[in-house]
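Sharing a chain and its predicted structure for anyone who wants a worked example. Both blocks are below, sequence first, tokens second.
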Amino acid sequence: MHRIACALVPALALGCALDAEGLPGPGGPSTGGGVAASSSSATGGGAGGGSSSASSASSGASSSTGAGAGGAGGAPVVCGSGSECLAAVPAGWEGHFRVRHTPYPDGSPPSCPDGAAPSLVTDGPAGPAQCSACSCGALQGAQCAVQVNFWLSTDCTGTSSSESYLLDTGYACYDWPNSFSGPLSGKFDGDVIQDQGSCSSAGGQLMNATPWQFQDAVCPVAVVDGACGGGDVCVAAGNADYTTACIRQAGSAACPAGWGMPIEIFSSFTDDRGCSGCSCSPSVQCSAMDVLYDNDGCAAGSSIALTNACQNLSQLIDFGTGSEVAAKPTAGGSCAPTGGAPIGALVPAGVTTYCCK
């Protein structure tokens, strides 16, 4: 970009400075495209600048690329082809650098503008582990039995009957001894878990395994011959892949004025994030069928099915008859999942602060 200095000295001398695109020169803000270069107007004689007062006969200007109209004493202000003016690197900082900022990972970043391979660093460390929820499949392989108890009373108290037994397999009709008579009551009196079975587990996977949000390809920028106004310097221009100009400082730091917000870039890290394993705890319930009949041979007539509540069975064994049939208990239930908790942490190291414009 060429800056064209002009000086009009009519009855009242007026100074002006416009660049080739009609943007204000020194004495007004620089709003040119690409990377902005800071500039300031000179108030005394100096390279590339003159007085900006209304009584001056000429005004100095800093240029970006190409030859300018002239500085103090007629010295040209020049930043040649393939280069541009940038604000000088502040004290305590390094630079300049071109930085290509892309989502992580970027497996094949382009070469630097000078053809060299960029240095690869990362920023935006991932947060704590995020884990998928644990879940359990259907209960498999569980087995159980049901205790069947009888009492020689009408309310399941007192003396137990010798006919009490563990129902763990089905059987066909069974006739009670014909000599049995008197009050009788009974019920299912508790499940007996013979095999808890198991459930398959799923989940507990690390959902944010990618350790970084961004990858940065960093290219050093050479200072080249030329002169810029306002204390700026001439540097090699970037290209379509590397447009951002940056400075850097080791450690965490605030950016100098005019250099944007800090970006903390890291050279290494350790990452042991993960999720605790999922497991499933079975909860088994048994169901059974046990029916008592008034008649022998489980013939049609009065009958009572046992439940977990006490049943008065006395009327079923009157006159010396009575029978019973049962089915093998079935095991049902489900599993409760545990685990899938976040563990570990990502710890970045080698922080460097980059400030870019």
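Comments welcome. The chain has three domains: 1-78, 94-128+208-258+347-356, 136-200+279-338.
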